[in-house]
């Protein structure tokens, strides 16, 4: 039996510092309510810039982290604290993540 070589594709997540969303747009992008987004901030999944929710700005990396943590909650039935920890550990393991 001959094995077929599988191509290896590598990608690097590049943070675009010019791309930011305010709190309302973040909720729209994530299709979630304000309470769920606040929970994501509380558990450290989201790291907003700004003093208060009215002034918060979120990066594309925040959106990625939120989507990943919500997927872990949904698919693996983790609680949000567990998903936040899993996202942090995955970032430590991946050399492409900051």
Please summarize what this structure is.
The chain is mostly helical and 98 residues long.
**Low-confidence spans:** none
**Strand segment count:** 2
> What structural class do you assign from the helix and strand content?
mainly alpha
**Portion in beta strands:** under 5%
List the domain count as a whole number: 1
Number of DSSP helical runs: 4
Which term fits the overall shape? globular
What is the CATH architecture assignment?
A: Orthogonal Bundle
- Give the CATH class: Mainly Alpha
In order across it, which strands form the biggest sheet?
1-2
* Radius of gyration from CA coordinates: 16 Å
Distance between the termini: 42 Å
Strand and helix order = EHHEHH
What does this structure look like?
- The structure is a single chain.
- The protein contains 4 helices and 2 strands.
- The protein has 98 residues and is mainly α.
- The protein has a single domain (21-93), classed as Orthogonal Bundle (Multidrug-efflux Transporter Regulator, Chain: A, Domain 2), CATH 1.10.1660.10.
- It has a two-stranded antiparallel ribbon.
Supply the key terms:
about 100 residues; mainly alpha; Multidrug-efflux Transporter Regulator, Chain: A, Domain 2; two-stranded antiparallel sheet; 4 helices; 2 strands; about 50% helix; globular
Give the SSE map:
Elements: E1 21-22, H1 23-30, H2 34-42, E2 57-58, H3 60-76, H4 80-93
Antiparallel strand pairs: 1-2
